[in-house]
Amino acid sequence: MAGKPPTGDPVQDAPEVTSPRHSAAGLPAIAQTLRTAQRQMGVRRTALTLLRVNQKDGFDCPGCAWPEGDERHAAEFCENGAKAVAEEATLRRVTPAFFAAHPVSGLFGRSGYWLGQQGRLTHPMYLPEGADHYEPVSWERAFDIVAEELHALSSPDEAVFYTSGRTSNEAAFLYQLFAREFGTNNLPDCSNMCHESSGSALTDTLGVGKGSVLLEDLHKADLIIVAGQNPGTNHPRMLSALEQAKRGGTKIITVNPLPEAGMERFKNPQNARGLAGGGVALTDLFLQIRLGGDHALFRMLGKLILETEGAVDTAFVEQHTHGFEEFAALARTADWDETLRATGLTRAEIEQALQLVLASRRTVVCWAMGLTQHKHAVATIKEVVNFLLLRGDIGRPGAGVCPVRGHSNVQGDRTMGIFERPAPAFLDALEKEFGFAPPRHHGLDVVRAVRALRDGTAKVFFAMGGNFVSATPDTDVTEAAVRRARLTVHVSTKLNRSHVITGARALILPTLGRTERDRQRGGDQFVTVEDSMGMVHASRGRLAPASDRLLSEPAIVCRLARRVLGDRSTTPWEEFEADYATIRDRIARVVPGFEDFNARVARPGGFTLPHAPRDSRTFPTTTGKANFTASPVEHPELPEGRLLLQTLRSHDQYNTTIYGLDDRYRGIKNGRRVVLVHPDDARALHLADGSYTDLVSEWTDGTERRAPGFRVVHYPTARGCAAAYYPETNVLIPLDHTADASNTPASKSVVVRLEPTAGPGAAPGGAA
Ligand SMILES: Nc1nc2c(c(=O)[nH]1)N[C@H]1C(S)=C(S)[C@@H](COP(=O)(O)OP(=O)(O)OC[C@H]3O[C@@H](n4cnc5c(=O)[nH]c(N)nc54)[C@H](O)[C@@H]3O)O[C@H]1N2
Ligand SMILES: Nc1nc2c(c(=O)[nH]1)N[C@H]1C(S)=C(S)[C@@H](COP(=O)(O)OP(=O)(O)OC[C@H]3O[C@@H](n4cnc5c(=O)[nH]c(N)nc54)[C@H](O)[C@@H]3O)O[C@H]1N2
Ligand SMILES: [Mo]
């Protein structure tokens, strides 16, 4: 039987610390998978569900966006994918009786962990103005309420339509269509906090804001550089690809302030060697870089390549690139002292990296949040592109850029037009297909949406999934901002903190998850998703829905659009709801690369979207070439006695969804309020291992923000750097602390002071 959710709360946060592990997966991962899954789903459902994950006739794992290879294992999932599935397929339920028993003011004091563990939402729920209890509401009445508030706005731009990255292509396409027919481009998404910096840098330099490699390119690469990413926890199936590459002789350089277990050694649970043997060592060279030092590192590598006879692919540079001379002139001035200071590395380590680079004829660079969430993130990623361009490592097999995406369909949502700054060509296509004039002025991204709510210029907040108040920075500011809204609406599967921090009125609209059967008037439906490498494929759930009151995301958008837009819209919303193939027919006519969508997605495994730089070394940039970028090297400066804090994920969480209180690979159990500090830094700051400290961030305007009561863990991170989990630490990050050009919150570089305290802080409701 499935176990009960935790009852005690605040959940006891009492970290126990052992030493970090040096390998990932193996038997402990399988044991953990089954334990978590059975606790949520029971034995029978666990077996039925997990065997359908990522199969060609099954559903896409709601975990990460890592692609599936052509050959699938019977168990094509990982420990953390299984946890994501178990969270959704849980047998626990949050019913109207739950809301009758728990006033919103009571839920406010609960942790996000506790809220999430209560189970699946079963009924549409409404919180009237001034009320302290959500009450059940009919779908019709719920849509009336949204329509009432939307119609009361003085401009469509006073509404914000957020999207998290699990939404299917079909739902996303309809959602942006609805928002634009309503009259706004206010379509912020989780990508604004995630890979926006990658999209921004890659669009400027290569002309396409997506990765340029396919799975087989990783297998063919001579060298893979994994910078700012922890795949052992966040993209575990990537380790299988790295393992396969290693067996073919690929070298791997890992660039990270933390020695992450998954990059050290991988014990593949799908083969005997992984289970019984010692597994495979993945990393050949570990560069333990300081936070934010990557720009300096890649610039120095660029200089060294330029100085090496015959190392530059001059034919490629001449034929396909723009701006080489300017870049080369600047790169030649790169300074060793500055590089060593910024990176914390030794000259010998960087020269060793250079040898691996020069020995490689095909190099891939993979990255994730460790590069994207810095003030100079866009400049850093452009430097990665410079580095690859020098060697001609774009647009040929075994080489390229590989930004590893987070949410399982975050890339697809963008392709479908979820973007506050849509390309004119996309709007032209919408206009032609649907016969309305879409708004042309740019909308709000996540940070700007929070400001607009704070300033009262946005009044209705609608979320297609996600957990906005917990995922965004500056928790206190954001919560106050959201409370000013007239109406907040969340289309959700599970209870979270965004249901508790509400506008004057609030709605929870419960929806189907990936694992569930989606039956409409036109029969059983499937949806489609796009993975991190531009592969589009079908996802079909089989489980009975968590409740018979749930509507699918496409159905919710269709009914809402009909109610809000009325006769104004000539879009066939009813037809779309009945048969998703009719949505795909429209996508095929609007979005390039989706021609003949229904036929092509019917093939097992789906199809790959075109990518000009990858396919033909053509670059749809403003210069028509791949662009080198010449910008001064940037890196964070650290005042005396301070540490640079990165906010990251534990092994037991999916963003703001907390699965449990352990971080197995880092040797932490039963607690999340920990701060990892280098032993020498800790000693200099008089912080004993096991002592407690407040984290205090200091901002340029003189303000301070405090997160109380973190247990100090002496940990082998880079000097001057510290690490603690998100979302607990979001309270420390000022809204205005964002990356240049992409406006992504700089969650990986927060200057903090550590103030010793007597003991564990009372974890406020804002805690995980
Ligand atoms: N199980 C699980 N899977 C997930 C998620 C989850 O929460 N749980 N989240 C999903 C989402 S939305 C995303 S975006 C991805 C996130 O995947 P990751 O980006 O792997 O997630 P983080 O935990 O933020 O880890 C950042 C990594 O970068 C390193 N790092 C931090 N700063 C720097 C730096 O300045 N330079 C370098 N070189 N390294 C640095 C950190 O030490 C850490 O190893 O995972 C996705 N998959
Ligand atoms: N400090 C700090 N902040 C960060 C980050 C960081 O590294 N550090 N990372 C950032 C990143 S990379 C991201 S992507 C964002 C994540 O931001 P979000 O995507 O907004 O957050 P999640 O925690 O992934 O959202 C979880 C909620 O989604 C809902 N949900 C789950 N599945 C479905 C579904 O199928 N349909 C619908 N409608 N709802 C569903 C559930 O109700 C669940 O509670 O956070 C960002 N914030
Ligand atoms: Mo993300």
TrEMBL record:
Q: Which GO-annotated molecular functions does the record name?
A: 4 iron, 4 sulfur cluster binding; formate dehydrogenase (NAD+) activity; molybdenum ion binding; molybdopterin cofactor binding
Any one of the GO CC terms: membrane
- According to the record, the residues making up region (Disordered) are 1-24
Q: Taking every annotated instance into account, which residue ranges of this chain make up the domain Molybdopterin dinucleotide-binding?
A: 643-750
Identify the stretch annotated as signal peptide in this record: none
- Source domain of life: Bacteria
Question: What keywords appear on the UniProt entry?
Answer: 4Fe-4S, Iron, Iron-sulfur, Metal-binding, Molybdenum, Oxidoreductase
Q: Which family does it belong to?
A: Belongs to the prokaryotic molybdopterin-containing oxidoreductase family.
* Matching PANTHER family: PROTEIN YDEP (PTHR43105:SF4), RESPIRATORY NITRATE REDUCTASE (PTHR43105)
Q: What is this protein called?
A: FdhF/YdeP family oxidoreductase
Organism expressing this protein natively: Streptomyces caatingaensis
